[in-house]
Amino acid sequence: MSGIDAASLIAGMGARARAAAVLLAAMPGAEKARALASAAAAIRADAAAIEAANAEDMAAGAANGLSGAMLDRLRLDAGRIEAMAAGVEAVARLADPVGQVIERVERPNGLVLTRVRVPIGVIGIIYESRPNVTADAGALCFMSGNAAILRGGSEAIRSNRAIHAALARGLEAAGAPADAIQLVPIADRAAVGAMLTAEGAIDMIVPRGGKSLVARVQAEARVPVLAHLDGLNHTYIHAAADPEMARALALNAKMRRTGICGATETLLIDRGFADPAPVLKALADAGCELRGDAEVQAIEPRANPATAEDWDTEYLDSILSVKLVDGPAEAMAHIAAHGSHHTDAIVTGDAAVAERFLAGVDSAIVMWNASTQFADGGEFGLGAEIGISTGRLHARGPVALEGLTTYKWVVRGTGQARP
Amino acid sequence: MSGIDAASLIAGMGARARAAAVLLAAMPGAEKARALASAAAAIRADAAAIEAANAEDMAAGAANGLSGAMLDRLRLDAGRIEAMAAGVEAVARLADPVGQVIERVERPNGLVLTRVRVPIGVIGIIYESRPNVTADAGALCFMSGNAAILRGGSEAIRSNRAIHAALARGLEAAGAPADAIQLVPIADRAAVGAMLTAEGAIDMIVPRGGKSLVARVQAEARVPVLAHLDGLNHTYIHAAADPEMARALALNAKMRRTGICGATETLLIDRGFADPAPVLKALADAGCELRGDAEVQAIEPRANPATAEDWDTEYLDSILSVKLVDGPAEAMAHIAAHGSHHTDAIVTGDAAVAERFLAGVDSAIVMWNASTQFADGGEFGLGAEIGISTGRLHARGPVALEGLTTYKWVVRGTGQARP
Question: Can you give the CATH number for the domain in which A12 is found?
Fold first, then answer.
């Protein structure tokens, strides 16, 4: 299919999405929740068909030489399909953000202004491999009153079609517009380009995937993008840290799961900290490769030498760069120079130092005496997340329903003309 | 100066702005207010020099054939310079948004999360002709904790330099970083291009000027843009409108000032409205050209025929398109098809119809029984405005200090590791 065809396809989907978005914007929260419950039931009813479609994707993926990790992300079984349906139900239980009054002002001339949360409109989601995003992202957009145009990876297209068919049937059965959640039906990459330039048809794009996908989206998009790029996170053990807490948090922040964006990638340790050896020993014992200079290697002999590149590397693996610093100023300067403004933590018993760190480190999430692995919408109590934004505008950090809304100003008067 | 030189210039200014922004982000509100008061005093002290620089711009502008309207926008006199200084003082009196806690959540595991307002960082302002923007926009960015890179029109460069010199001296005298407000020193248009692509150095661009400037910025920018495009606003007189209120609001909404973005451009009148003739007569008597079909011309003989183009035209002049409609559904459909999502108003005594209009019209500002000319940050009680956003993300409608901030998540724990 040529680029022009992809553009017409996306324009047509955008027009249907806009019409659905108008209906969705006015739909009460309880009605949206009922429609999502119906969609979840349809996913359960279609479990066998979804699993069969997924088996075809898996076979094609294996034939095309997808890596084991890719195949695992692609795979759906009964448990994962049930988790997907339960996830849609969990989104349906979230509070409806639409219609919330953010602010109310009465002016001296009697005008009453309220700032009211409304949906953004049409959201484009571009994602890779994991087919559960079809249901998760579709549900989050729907519950926040937005129509969604979903474009999953070509390797998952049969799975995504099967999941989407269930979602659409479930929505329709509940009297909701099926066009509220649409799936781009073609695998052609030109469809991605058409979405990225669909100004006016798509109001915001959320890429969900690896760095190369996100980088392409950010480079080509004319539509605003809400994106997550790097999670080059630091945990800083201050001199006044409790040694046992420092050991436990460093271990958890790095090793609980190494592949998630909230994992710590660089450990900064004050030269004044009493007990660095047990911290590094616990990490090395857990199978973490440590990288540092001679001073670090003197503390933990299993550490390897670090190169300049290490301080700018998001490993997403069992590797940790370790650096000794002389106090908070040097730690904060290192984070400013090498961090990605995602999540950075300090471990200390000194409240004044902690507050200085929390105020001075310019990251979406700053933490005191907690594991950076808590950087997650569910852990933040948001119920779910469409992603974590490392941009500075609109929404920052974990993004859930509220980040998928905007607001309007509603002005009520009694005939006021402006003098 | 070549494009490459402009890029290096902007990169250098960006680096100095970033350093200043770090200091500004931590500066207490009272200290920022004192620095702005000092800047206002410096503007007053430099009034003669500013006026002399402006006289040179005026002479050059006249020699270059600038229109009378352009020359009026460019002109500074003692009154306008005093107003500029007073404007900076007014910004200094606004509440500091930085550090405000938007939300506080305590999680079952004991983690305490607060969402805290912080500055965006470095804001680029690209503007035309009116030199007072140098002071206004610089002060708004400063008070919200952001460093500003200002790029005014080449026709005002001497005036802008003189105003900027005063601002910078005033800030420095108060111990604030002069690099917090920088002015691009060259008139080369390549500087605009360099700003628009300065990802990482500039966090947000705000264009202030005519449609061609804003359109160029939106087309070329890789940096996020907070922009105002069209103000194709409607006033809809519902059947249940009070006739005298309808007359007064239509007249004010169109004719109070025709050149501002909140002016009404299209008047929709219900066929069921009792008394359209006095409304149209008042407008025609006030010198407004009316454009409509035969039905409209039958009501007001001075009306001219409307073409299809009229419904999509932002006149910014004493011209008004007028259309008769059959009730709220047709009015709202017309607004959806032809409006620019800026400001739309209904005049009616029927509260249920009004609420349906307020909920169903997808504009940044929706009004009931009020003049669309109230679409203004000052009138909304925001104290000042950097502009009115017609985009849907980050900020919508009048944007003042809060729209120049973002937030960070601050997580305080007692050693929590994630299970």
Answer: 3.40.605.10
Tell me if A57 is assigned to some domain.
yes
B224 contacts on A by Cβ (under 8 Å):
224, 391, 393
Task: Answer yes or no: do A96 and A7 share one domain.
Answer: yes
Let me know if B2 is exposed, middle or buried by CB neighbors in 10 A (0-12, 13-18, 19+). Answer: exposed
- Say yes or no: ipTM exceeds 0.85: yes
Contact A408, B365 (CB under 8 A): yes
Name the DSSP class of A392: S
C-alpha span between B352 and B346 (Å, rounded) = 12
- Calculate how close chain B gets to A60, using CA atoms only, in Å: 36
Q: Is residue B391 part of a domain?
A: no
B386-417 pLDDT tens trace: 888 988 999 999 999 999 999 999 999 999 99
pLDDT band at A1, cuts 50/70/90?
Answer: very low
- Short-list B168, B174, B167, B184, CA closest to B126: B184
Instruction: Note whether B365 contacts A408, CB cutoff 8 Å.
Output: yes
On chain B, the residues whose CB falls within 8 A of the CB of A363 are 408
Distance between CA B32 and CA B40 in Å, rounded? 12
pLDDT digits (tens, 9 = 90+) for A29-78: 999 999 999 999 999 999 999 999 999 999 999 999 999 988 999 999 99
Tell me the chain A residues in contact with residue B413 when contact means C-beta distances shorter than 8 Å.
367-370
Structural domain of A307: 233-374
